[in-house]
Design brief:
By secondary structure, this protein is α+β, with helices and mostly antiparallel strands. It has a single domain, classed as Deoxyribonuclease I, Chain A (4-Layer Sandwich), CATH 3.60.10.10. It contains five helices and twelve strands. The chain has a seven-stranded mixed β-sheet with strand order 1-4-5-3-2-12-11, covered by helices on one side. Helix 1 packs parallel to helix 2. The chain starts with a strand and ends in a 5-residue tail after the last strand.
């Protein structure tokens, strides 16, 4: 795992109007290849600038290697945010997987190996982030394509919450196509049911694959899809944005 830190951004950059909420986003980058087939990581950076979230969870991120670009490093430079990498595919030639960008200090980082049998390696990036003096546990993940795989992965993630309680944000591409799928029903046992908004595919969104779950649920104010001309072409997923109360009293 990699933690890149810009010493010039120790203090969160947030306007007064934003001090009462956290803006958290999840975005599957599709390897920074847009629906036009072009590899254009700068477009992803421009989409992130449009959103201006406090924390981003990113999936399908090229993380460098001898034969692979480091898209996360580029996005870190473009946004000025701190970056944490959570590769699920990690060889000298190519690193690829999950990542988090944050304007707040990262206090601890863990990775969960969610790989299932012989299927594509999967994982979760689990970070404790200090948001204006309150520690949040942010778990960024990208679940598998098979229903049995997703069920096992969700059980593994939920078991990791047995550690001392922090407020939790679980977010990412859950790959759950069915609104009443067993994966989502299991998550409702720990999280309040969250709004399901269609994010995939960007040409004609049909499926709510990208999700943000918050515990305690009353901290979640609303969830929006970031639909712009740029986000429509930059990836095959739209970004999903959650607005979260920055304090228990709102």
């Amino acid at each position: 795992m990699t933690l890149m830190h810009d010493p010039g951004i120790d203090q969160p950059r947030m306007t007064f109007a934003r001090e009462r909420e956290l803006r958290i986003g999840t975005y599957n980058l599709h390897g920074a290849v847009g629906i036009d087939g072009k590899f254009a990581p700068e477009r992803i950076g421009d989409v992130l600038a449009e959103i201006d979230a406090d924390i981003f969870a990113l999936q399908e991120v090229p993380l460098g290697g001898a034969s692979s670009p480091d898209v996360l490093a580029l996005l870190q430079r473009m946004t000025g945010l701190d970056a944490v990498a959570g590769p699920t595919f990690d060889t000298p030639a190519r690193r690829f997987g999950n990542a988090v960008l944050t304007r707040y200090p990262v206090r601890a980082v863990r990775t969960l190996d969610l790989s299932f049998k012989s299927r594509e390696p999967r994982g979760a990036l689990d970070a404790d982030i200090d948001c204006n003096g309150e520690l949040w546990r942010v778990v960024a993940t990208h679940l598998g394509l098979a229903s049995s795989e997703r069920r096992a992965q969700v059980e593994q993630v939920l078991q990791s919450f047995d550690t001392p309680a922090l407020p939790v944000i679980l977010l990412g591409d859950l790959n759950e196509w069915f609104v009443y799928g067993r994966t989502l029903r299991r998550l409702v046992t720990h999280f309040r049911r969250a709004t399901a908004l269609r994010t995939f595919p960007t040409r004609f969104p049909l499926f709510a694959l990208d999700r943000i779950w918050v515990h305690p649920g009353e901290r979640l104010l609303r969830v929006d899809v970031h639909r712009t001309a740029l986000s429509r072409v930059a990836s095959d997923h739209y970004p999903l944005i959650a607005h979260i109360s920055a304090s228990v009293n709102g």
